[in-house]
Amino acid sequence: MFTYQTTDRKEARRLRIAQFNARPATVRSAGATVTGRVRSIVESESGAAWVVTIVPDAPKSAAPAMRRAPRMCLAAEDYL
Prior knowledge:
By secondary structure, the protein is an alpha+beta fold. 15% of the residues lie in helices and 38% in strands.
């Protein structure tokens, strides 16, 4: 789990919406980028910061190579 603290109200709201809708969220902090599901958002006692806990998603494997489409026009005789 990744714990992140923010004082940005807009970012806290964005992360709260991602948690509510069960969408992954991306957070950049000190050169590290973490993408995962938001587990909790807790407002600090001072009320000026939020502590966010994120469960990172497993990295996606490379997609298999797709076949190339054939390069022929099937309706070419219609134009002759």
